[in-house]
Every structure is written in C-alpha cells, then in structure tokens.
Write the structure tokens for this entry.
Amino acid sequence: MNRGTALRSLTAVLTGLLVGCASSTGADDLRPPTPAQTSPEDTSTAPPAPPECDPVASYAPTTTPGASVQAIRDRGALVVAVSADTYLMGARNPVTGQIEGFDIDMANYVAEAVFGEPGHLQLRVITSAQRVPALTDHEVDLVARAFTMNCARWEQIAFSAEYYHAGQKVLVATDSSATGLDTLPKDTRVCAPAGTTTIAQLERDYPDVEPVPADTHTGCLALFQQGKVDAITGDDTILAGLAAQDPYAKVVGQAVSDEPYGLGVAADQADLAAYVNGVLEQVKADGRWAASYDRWLSVLGPAPAPPQAVYGR
Amino acid sequence: MHPARRADQLPTPTLLRLVGVLTVVAALATGFFGWQASQSQADALGAASTSADRLLAAQQVRNDLVAADALATNGFLVGGLEPTESRARYAQLVDAAAQGLARLSFPDAADTDRVARATAALTTYTGLVEQARTANRQGLPVGIAYLDQASAELRDRLLPELDALVESGADDAAGRFDQVADAPWLLLLVLLGLGVLVAAQVWDARRTHRVVNAGLTGASVLALVVLSAGLGLGSVDRTARDIRTGPYRATLGVSQAVSQAHDAQALESLTLIKHGSGSAYEAAAATAAREARRQLGQVHYEQHPDGLPLARVFETWFCPDPDEPDFDETDFDETWTCRGTTGDHQAIRGADDAGDWDGAVALALSQDPGSARAHFDDFVTAATTQADRLHAETTDGLASARSTANLVSWVAVVAGLFAAVLAWFGLAKRREEYR
C-alpha cells in the first residue's frame, strides 16, 4: 500500500468511525413515507332552515316551447344531470353500459317531447352536492336525480311539478316481523349514510336502535348482506333499489317523512319548467308514468296514482 | 518497594521471559482484533444484504397487491364480464403476494405479527373482491360497495402492515450499514498491539545493547501488515456506503415508485367507477402519482443516472397540471420536463370532467400502442427490469465487499500467529545469550 492509498484508507477509517457514531434509520433510504390515502367523504350536509313557501308549487304547464326550449333544440341535445349509482332511479347497467332508471325515463320523456324523436338526450353524471351548482352555473338544462323539492332550494333554483312522492322507510330482512322504523326491536343496528341528517334523526327520534354509518346506501346493503347491520333506512326509492338487489330484503312501513321529487331547472328558465310540467302532465295521463313505475319501482308495491301537480308560481 | 523498581531488580532472563509472554499476547491480540474487526464488518455486510432482501420481498408483496387491485378495479370499468387474461393475471399476482407473504421471515416478533395480520387481511380482501365480482356479473350496483370495502381493506389494513414491514426492514438494513462503519474501531486495539511490540523492541535494545531484534522486528512488520489490511476495511466501508446511497436506495426508490404508480392507476379506475362521486379518489390518485414521479426524480438526481429515463417514461402517463387546485410547486422541481404537456391520466380525467365518461373509460381501457395502458405497462416493465438489476447490483456489491472483509480477516489471523511465533523466538534468542 503506497502512502497516498494508506492515507486515504486511514481517512476512510476515521470517517467511518465518525459516521459510525451517528445512527441512521430506514427512512433515510426509503425517503419520505408513503402518503396517506384519503377516503371518499360524504359531501352531504344538513340543509339550513327552509324559508316558508309551498315547496311543491311550480309553474303552470304549457306545451308551447319558449326561448329556453328553442335554445335546446338549436343545440341538438337536452343535457340532464343524473345519478349513475342509484339503482332503479339512475344507475349504469354494468352489462349494457347504459344509465337507466325511473329518473332517466322522466328525462327521456322530456327530451322526446322537445325534439319529437328519441336520441337527443345527453346525460351528465353528478354527485348530489353538485345538483344545485350544476343549475346555477347553467352547466345542464335539467337535474333528474332524486331531487327533493324544498323552499331553501327554491331560493336558488326552480323545480318542475312533483313527479314522484318518496318518503323515508326502512329495509329489513324478509323474515323480520318489523312493520316500520318504530317497531324495530331494541338495539337493532340501522344503517344510513354517514354525515346525513338521517343518522342524527335516528339518534333523536329512535333512541332504542343503534345507528350505523356507511359511505353510501349501497355500502349499507353490503353491511346488511354481511350481517353487520339489521336494517337500512332512507328514501323508499333508494330502498327499492337495494331490495331489488337482495331477495332476502324487503321495504316495510309507512313513510315517516315526505320527499317530493321534482326535476331541477335553473331559476331564470321558468319557461323550461312550465314546458317540462306540460310534458309531465301528459306522461302522468297517458300511462307512461305508471309503466315506468312498474318497470323500476314495482318492488315497492303496485303503482300508486301519480302525484297531483300543484301550480301557482 | 515500588513495583517498577522491583521489576527492574528481576534477573534479565526472567524479564526477557515476561516480555516475551507480553509480546506473544500482543501479537495474538493484534491478529485477533484484526480478525474480529473484519469479521464483524463481513457479518454486518451479510446482514445488510439479508435485510435489504427481506424489505424488498415485503415491498414486492405490496407491489403485487396494488397491481392486482388495479386489475380487479379496472375489470369493473369493462362491465359485467371481466377479460379472461385480466382475471388470470389478477390470480397470478394474488398468488405471488400470498406466497411472498408466507415466505416473509422477520426476526422481530412484532414484524411476525404484522405478517400474520397482513395474511388475514389478504384473505378478507380477496373474499370481498370475489363478492364484488359476483354482484357485478349480475349487474347489481352492490358490487361497487364490495369493491369499496375491498379497497378499504387493502388500503386501511393490508398495505399499512406491509409499509410497516418495509419500514422495519429498512431500519434494520440502516442499522447493519451503520455497523459496517463501526467495525474499524477495533483497529485501535491492533494499533495498541503494535505499540506493545515496538515498545518491547525499544526495551530490548536498551537492555541488551542490540539495535535490532530480528524476531520482534518481523512481528512488528506483521502487526503492521494486519493494521494495513485493516485500513482496507475503510475502503470496504466506503464501498458499502456507495452501495447504500447508490443502487440500494435506487432499488427502493424505483420499487416504491412502481407501487405508488399502481395505486394511482387503481384509484383512477375507482374515480371513473364512482362516476361523479369519485373526486376524493382522484385526489388520492394524483398524490400517489406525484409521489411516484418524485421518487423517480430522486433516483436520478442523487442515486442512479438511469433513473431519469424512467421518470420520463412515467411522465407520459402522468404530468402534474400546475392549474390544478392542489398543485404544489415544490413537487414540480427542475427534473420535470413534461410541463405544458398532458399525461394520459390527465387526458382521462379531462374527458370525464367534461362529461364524456364513456370517452374517459375508453381511454383508460384501450390497449392500443400509444394508449394510457400501453404507456403505463411500458413504465412498469422498464421499472421492474431496472429494480431487478439494481437489486442484483446491490447484492453483488455487498457480496464482493464481504469477500474483501473475509480476506482481511484471514490475513489478520495468519499474520497474528506468525507475529506471535517471531516475537517469542526473537526474545528466546536473547535469553539463550544469558545461559
């Protein structure tokens, strides 16, 4: 070993001695730890106290197209915001790839009336939180997504006349003797989407049951099938979609709340709302409404009379 | 009486015998500590290599699982019937992960528990994926809920256990690399032995008025040989540090990048599957993709020159958009060259965000040359090949350094023994002169 090499080696040894004094960790080699995954969050929040009004009152129906309808015709397509994961109301059929359901039927009826032929409906999938902004920003013409009419929303947008009257019910196993939320046995585990008013309502009005949150109603069904919950509560339309996926589930009882569904329209397009109301009048009268009900919602029982439209705005 | 004076008054032959014993002990100690220093370094190098293998095996299980999850999730975009080859590949990856988990062997009891928990979580995960598939084939949306549960099982329970195992393995490897640097401390004791031999020679020269004692000189030279060979351990340490900051870290970087990239791809599919409700998944996908690209950038800049081409390949799939609200300028360092272009992932998101869900799915599922899938597969193939090569480079480098340390240890043993013999006979010759 020549002098230079010996010196370098000695330096290396001394450096090694010094380095050896400071202990290191695996993080030095791995670099920063893996970022934490964020999980989907429920965006639903409790609505503010609604102003006083008649939530189901809409504009008088018309069959005469106004400026809004003409603009839609010029564009060549009616753009409707829908859900793609609410089975039976608006959900993508995994086999055909098409979005279908009761809400989608209503959108189709309006599109066919506007254009006089099928094939002019353009669907845009949105979350429930995007329903109002989609209209206030004029991103879509209509919202057909289990949209409950209430006075707080009337402050920002307009609605068509009521096309379906939903209500909160409960889903239980077929062998359950419960006949509604109030007859559930003590300590029944009842699932509802996390962060919604339903969980708070369960705690307040039904103290004997045990509320269990899940991400979505479909998440509740998975828990129900796994035996982790005994019941699910929500709008009867949503529960119908769940019951249709599970032969061992049934929806029972009278509705404990009123959820009138309307098609959402931008506040400055009252002419469109009036035109849609004209279409809905025809759909309810000529049996198409009942046909759609039978196709999608018969799990809830025989088709009731369509909701009576209220006008006066 | 003072002990020094008492020793001074001992007869010279007795003193020569005592000093002889002392030099033999010093020479043997020189050999022993030289051997000990190099052996402990060789052992540390071997242990570092084993730890690296172990942590990379855990990382491989993670990679197999996220790749399998990406395939399973993609299957839901296709529709009710998952392509046969996709199912087969999923089964192959899950099988590889299960076997990899079974083979994972960690010395620490807490890590063994982690392996057990990960194994249990894997069983739950695969069960949920099967339930999801069954429902999906029947056209039932509850399949998506099971897929959500499977995703949560994977990301909340299984992957954290594997990440902890990787972290633990990396800590262990880091400790072993530190031990490689610690070993040369023992050379101070070799230096002490050499000092004793030189001091004995000086004492002998004064006492017997002979300038040179051939035996002791030979022993000192051999002790110097041990010390010089020991100094070679410094170069072994330097090599080990080069391996650690070079191919070892690059292996970890590339392997982790592949894992993050697969995760991003699975989350991209989940975003599309969830339709309008997938924004949280997209945020997680972008975070994972940025992390993958950051790891690849680090590989180039600090560890391995081959890293950058890999980063470029990845950029065709994902290029962060500075206009995005969660964009962080610090993530977009000077190594990025895709600024102003659109990666495949962004193109898919762009189509979906503009309301063209079908178009986005078509982009995500296409396997044509130049498609998102083709670019992603190109990246994974290139990265996997490079990670394997870097791992081999790490293992070979550590094995070579270990051979050097082993050689030094045997040189120390032989030189120490000879030095002891020479020292004894060197002083024995003096004792004979007093007979």
